[in-house]
Each structure stands twice: as structure tokens, then as C-alpha cells.
Amino acid sequence: MRPAARLRLVDPFDGRSARAAYDAVAEEYAAEFGDDLDRLPLDRAVLDGAVERLPGPGPVLDVGCGPGQVGRYLAARGVVVIGVDLAWRMLSLARRDARATSLASADMRRLPLRSGSCAGAVAFYSLQHVHRSELGGALGELGRVVQPGGIVVLATHLGVGELYSEEFLGHRFPTVGAALHSREELDERLRGQGFRVEVARERGPLAHEHQTERLYLIARRSDG
Length: 224
Description:
Shape: globular
CATH topology: Rossmann fold
């Protein structure tokens, strides 16, 4: 049995797989990507556009917050941020510079927040770790915690099928999966959960990133 097969003891899309992977690489990930927004003008523009579209002063949920780079960017623009992540070591790094951000360990499929308690939710490169069969439910959970008229901001990898990894940034871990999505698929799933897409942007990968095209969507929850 090859080593990778021995590592695959848990469903690659189970939350425990993502937690193990990101806990293993937390420090290296923060060093490599913690200041990544400085070199990503489109990502910043999408986040700025999201801030402008917020329906009010309520908090914004940063889903899969990692070491907190997106939350810090939003907080610097006057947004109250709640960051959630499965990986405890990532949360530990985020707490070093939390600013206006509250942090908690949580799975995006089961968020520990009241319905309608957030003005918006941002999921930058976390949705791919949800199995395709659970995508609608995960988007529905984001819709549950976002107030009517609130927004959801998604950044994810374009493509078809799934990718699997057992090594990243010099660390090995149990197999973790990542689902690739098309714009049409996400648009359909968002509409099915009562959202309408207001902004869609795409960009190619940079040299230091995984070589997939990137998709950004800002969608608004219906008022009814």
C-alpha cells in the first residue's frame, strides 16, 4: 500500500480532513499567504465592493478565516468581523492580530450563529472543501445567518471535478479534497438558496498559487 493510501482514513471532504491539513501547515501558510492581499488587486476590489454593498452595520462572517487576512482587511474598513475556521492553529495565528475580529472554531455547514444575525458572509477559498453534494446545504447555511438583503461573497477555483492533496508547504497530512466549480453551477446553487448574483469576476492564477482560474461572486439574499 502506498503511503498516500494509508493516510486516507477519513473522507477527504470531512471537516476533520481540512482541519488536519490546515493545522499542519498553519505557520507556513501564514508566512506565505498572510499578506497576500497586498499583491491581489482584484481580490481587494471585490472585498471593497462587498463593503459598499452591505445593507447595514451588522457583522460580517469570515468563513474559513485562516490566519485572518481577509478579516483584517475588512476590519480596517470599519466592518465588524466574526471569523470562523475549523483549524485551531489557524485561529491561534489569527488571534495575534484580531483587531475588531471575533473568532471561533466552526464548520461552515453548521454555523453557531443566530439566523439573520449577519449583514454578510465572506468565504474566500473555503467553499471548495465542501463536497459537491453538500454545496447547496452549505450555501443555505450561509443564507440562514445572513439577514434578508445581506450579501455573500465567494472566491473559489474554477474547473470540473475534484482535486486531492496529501502534501502542501512541506507537510504531509490525511487526504483533503477540493471541489472545482463552474460559474453556472454556483449561480444555480445560489439562486436555489434565495440569492441573486450582482457581481462576477474572474482572474488567472499567479505564479505562487495553485494553477487554476479563480472566480469571485457577490450575491444578495432576497428580502422575502
